[in-house]
Design brief:
Layout lengths: L11 H4 E4 L4 E4 L1 H7 L5 H12 L4 E4 L12 H11 L4 H10 L14 H11 L1 H11 L1
Parallel strand pairs: 2-3
Antiparallel strand pairs: 1-2
Helix pairs in contact: 2-3, 5-6, 6-7
Length: 135
């Protein structure tokens, strides 16, 4: 059994951080789950940290949801419906997504990247706006 934190095989840099200003020890959810098993390396690390930092509390790190930087199909659909007078572009869009059969009565679907590239080809003014949104 390992006696000190330095002897563990756990990647401590990615699994826990100590915030001395707020007196907290932040751990990942995976680390917290593993530390619940008596005798595991994570358990021993927590035990040692609790003895060294008696007035600190443990906090589980929450993952932040990333905001999508690309247009969704719903956003594309709304934009096309507002700017497509005769419905040709909307039909093409639905065929590309596989929601409508093409002229050969086949339903095929393009990749999201291909659909996005096609959309920005049809509406280049949005590509500039989307690039600013990403930057």
């Amino acid at each position: 059994m390992k006696n000190t934190i330095r002897e563990t095989k756990i990647d401590l840099a990615n699994n826990l951080t100590i915030d001395h200003a707020n007196k907290t020890i932040t751990v990942t959810k995976q680390f917290q789950k593993a530390s619940g098993k008596y005798g595991s390396e994570e358990y021993l690390v927590c035990e040692e940290l609790m003895s060294k930092f008696k007035d600190y509390r443990f906090v589980v790190r929450t993952q932040k949801k990333r905001k999508s930087t690309t247009l969704s199909y719903d956003e594309m659909t709304k934009y096309i419906s507002k700017h497509d007078d005769n419905g040709e572009i909307m039909n093409e869009f639905l065929v590309m997504r596989g929601l409508k059969a093409n002229e050969n009565n086949e339903k095929t679907s393009e990749s999201p990247k291909e659909i996005r590239n096609w959309f920005f080809t049809k509406y280049p003014e949005l590509k500039k706006i989307n690039e600013k949104k990403v930057a």
